[in-house]
Inverse folding.
């Protein structure tokens, strides 16, 4: 971002860092790079690849991440002539910001990535460290390159014909004995829209069940449930303009600078350059809080309480937008009555937020010309997560901050395609693609006709939600599973329970790029392509549908997910006429109104690479940068406020479990580590799990930095290394979710689940801690990890 009054070197975030790096090493980097490159490549390489600041940034990453492999793109391509190098523009495979970049490759080897601002409107020249440098996993030695079948407890390689026949036999045998609902399917939010569309079609048309779900259930399903029943769409109402230019932000449950770094850079820049107000409410003092006008530390599990407290204050002090409420909403009277008990004193008692902080935030938000309400899983992963979303949606409606270019709701999505592949494409137990309910006869007939089925053969009952699938195995109601691109042994609540469920299945097939902890339990493993070997589309948090393009050929005999599903359907006698992912999107185009004007051809012809923001109703529709300008997407056109008055989380501390554990992401890892655990640079920073603990709490328990701790909950136990930091409050600890060994999900619980969304309560788990076993001489076990993060690295390049 540019600013006429602010020198580039004084800017925050990635842009400022890159400008400073350029200034610091201008002559050295230019001399070294240009001398090496100019004699070997054309002028275009110098302009688009060999920029000195890119070289310096890459050098920084190489030094900071202790990995010589993190060379600059310039160094990599300088050994080749330009016409020997393949350049492919594509969409990032990490998180759902929707960053784009050019991939430089030669003979199937990825040389590097570099954002091209002409085709990367969301991120410009910025990427996070994972997006820029984490790509060697594609050619990792342990990539799956051939199907595997298990015999006598051991895997052996098999042909595709044998492996697909084994999967078809395993699924069909269970279906014949106990019916289609004895089977379930898990789709992947890391796979493309096209991959997910054909997976839901396979479940419904070929097998005959609505038992299909994906990891959206474990993260933003509460968001979808709450927003769709309030506004109509279960997605962000605003786009990048609001995130860059709004007058005010309320961020909660979001470690933005580590989970979505590019968005964090935009927010911090707006705060600094335009004096936008930033309020952060979170149990843990994450880095984005350092930039806030007000950071409010809240007790874990009491989000509805402080949100209702804000709404009550606004109503009681006549700060609400009466005209907007009267003309565009229903249910205000019930909300006005319900929030009465959430007095400032009650909010402070339960949620820990002082009255003056409630007053300041409420007044500023209500009086701002525009406001964006942003959140991630800290708001949704609760047993009453949908109520939390009702509460923040009510706040947006009461203040009238929705339906305009710079005001609205913006849930930040964690996985690269959880919005599109995890929701829009219908790998859901209750919805066809485009959120068209399976229980509605009209939609069942619509999709039955499209698939040339008798409508009576289209399953009508809603299927199992994801965690319910694992519970159903224990009840002997589910006997077989097909899991695509997910690792539930690590991601499901209570890892021990998840493993036990997988071991109890009669048949399990897994489709992935590595032999994950989940795949180890499978009867058949099918090798899929990675993002950089795939074609299709992803949909970002801001509803941008963007092209994904194959940069290198698949390794070994790996195949695209959609092609595997097509060939598996053929084993059952179904001949789908898809020759390319664009054919699949053409079918989506016909069946999903919000994607009605989206085709690969149209996306390819866009000049700026921006993609199209759904809803795109027709072929000539320009897309929708922000929704609800004139009406909400409900039958009446009005937004429906919902009562939300749950106060306490599902469990609270006691003498046996006096501390509360929260969980979340770290900068250098992604989801369950399937890709990032193969990256030396990422692992040099976070190669193991850890426990953040407040120094005062540590002193109370006799814990020192780097001690190994045993953490026990009512549901399981694990061990991890202590990191003393004031990020959590006293009486609370934080453990990342990425790891199996030492990870948070050894401790979390699979019940109770959120009522409407069936999301687990990841964010509130009561625990006890103790020092792990001592050495023989009685000394405490300590592990040295000089790269472990604490407050001292708060200014490191971020990957929110």
């Amino acid at each position: 971002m540019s600013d006429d009054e602010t020198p580039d070197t004084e800017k925050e975030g990635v842009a400022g860092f890159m400008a400073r790096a350029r200034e610091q090493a201008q002559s050295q980097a230019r001399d070294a790079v240009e001398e090496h490159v100019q004699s070997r490549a054309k002028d275009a390489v110098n302009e688009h690849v060999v920029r000195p600041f890119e070289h310096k940034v890459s050098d920084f990453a190489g030094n900071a991440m202790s990995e010589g492999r993190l060379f600059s793109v310039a160094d990599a391509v300088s050994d080749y002539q330009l016409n020997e190098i393949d350049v492919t523009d594509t969409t990032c495979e990490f998180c759902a910001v929707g960053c784009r970049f050019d991939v430089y490759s030669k003979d199937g080897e990825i040389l590097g990535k570099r954002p091209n601002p002409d085709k990367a409107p969301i991120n410009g020249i910025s990427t996070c460290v994972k997006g820029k440098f984490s790509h060697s996993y594609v050619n990792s030695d342990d990539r799956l390159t051939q199907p595997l079948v298990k015999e006598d407890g051991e895997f052996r390689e098999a042909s595709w014909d044998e492996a697909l026949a084994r999967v078809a036999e395993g699924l069909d045998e269970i279906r014949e004995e106990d019916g289609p609902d004895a089977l379930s399917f898990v789709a992947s939010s890391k796979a493309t829209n096209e991959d997910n569309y054909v997976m839901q079609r396979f479940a419904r048309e070929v097998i005959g069940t609505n038992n299909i779900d994906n990891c959206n259930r474990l993260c933003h399903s509460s968001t979808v449930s709450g927003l769709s029943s309030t506004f109509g769409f279960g997605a962000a109402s605003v786009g990048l303009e609001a995130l860059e230019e709004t007058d005010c932000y309320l961020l909660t449950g979001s470690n933005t600078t580590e989970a979505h770094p590019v968005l964090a850079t935009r927010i911090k820049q707006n705060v600094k350059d335009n004096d936008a107000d930033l309020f952060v409410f979170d149990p843990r003092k994450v880095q984005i809080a350092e930039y806030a006008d007000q950071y409010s530390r809240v007790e874990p599990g009491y989000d509805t309480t402080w949100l209702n407290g804000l709404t009550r204050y606004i109503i009681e002090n006549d700060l609400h937008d009466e005209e907007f409420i009267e003309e565009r909403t229903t249910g205000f009277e019930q909300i006005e009555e319900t929030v009465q008990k959430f007095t400032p004193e009650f909010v402070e008692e339960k949620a820990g937020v002082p009255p003056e902080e409630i007053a300041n935030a409420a007044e500023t938000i209500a009086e701002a010309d525009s406001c964006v309400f942003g959140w991630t899983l800290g708001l949704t992963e609760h047993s009453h997560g949908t109520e939390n979303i009702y509460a923040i949606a009510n706040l947006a409606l009461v203040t009238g901050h929705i339906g305009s270019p710079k005001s609205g709701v913006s849930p930040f999505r964690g996985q690269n395609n959880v919005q599109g592949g995890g929701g829009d494409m219908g790998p859901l137990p209750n919805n066809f693609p485009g959120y068209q309910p399976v229980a509605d006869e009209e939609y069942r007939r619509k999709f039955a006709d499209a698939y040339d089925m008798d409508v009576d053969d289209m399953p009508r009952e809603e299927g199992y939600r994801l965690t319910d699938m694992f519970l159903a195995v224990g009840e002997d109601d589910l006997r077989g599973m097909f899991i695509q691109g997910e690792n539930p042994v690590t991601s499901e609540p209570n890892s021990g329970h998840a493993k036990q469920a997988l071991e109890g299945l009669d048949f399990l097939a897994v489709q992935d790029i590595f032999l994950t902890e989940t795949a180890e339990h499978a009867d058949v493993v099918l090798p899929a392509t990675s993002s950089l070997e795939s074609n299709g589309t992803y949909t970002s948090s801001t509803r941008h549908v963007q092209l994904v393009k194959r940069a290198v050929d698949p390794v070994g005999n790996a195949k695209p997910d959609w092609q595997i599903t097509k060939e598996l359907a053929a084993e059952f006698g179904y001949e789908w006429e898809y020759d390319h992912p664009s054919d699949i999107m053409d079918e989506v185009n016909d069946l999903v109104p919000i994607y009605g004007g989206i085709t690969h051809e149209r996306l390819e012809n866009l000049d700026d690479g921006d993609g199209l923001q759904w809803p795109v109703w027709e072929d000539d529709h320009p897309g929708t940068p922000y929704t609800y300008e004139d009406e909400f997407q409900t039958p009446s056109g009005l937004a429906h406020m919902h009562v939300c008055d749950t106060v306490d989380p599902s469990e609270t501390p006691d003498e046996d479990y006096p501390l509360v554990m929260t969980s979340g992401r770290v900068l250098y890892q992604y989801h369950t580590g399937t890709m990032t655990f193969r990256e030396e640079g990422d692992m040099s920073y976070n190669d193991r799990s850890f426990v953040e603990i407040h120094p005062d709490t540590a002193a109370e328990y006799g814990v020192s930095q780097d001690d190994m701790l045993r953490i026990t909950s009512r549901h399981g136990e694990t061990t991890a290394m202590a990191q003393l930091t004031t990020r959590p409050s006293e009486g609370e600890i934080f453990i990342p979710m990425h790891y199996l060994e030492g990870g948070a999900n050894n401790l979390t619980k699979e019940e109770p689940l959120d009522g409407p969304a069936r999301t687990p309560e990841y964010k509130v788990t009561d625990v006890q801690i103790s020092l792990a076993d001592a050495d023989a001489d009685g000394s405490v076990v300590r592990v040295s990890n000089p790269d472990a993060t604490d407050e001292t690295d708060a200014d490191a390049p971020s990957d929110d």
In short: The two ends are 18 Å apart (CA to CA). The first helix runs from residue 13 to 24. The chain has four domains: 8-134, 148-217+417-612, 221-411, 659-793.
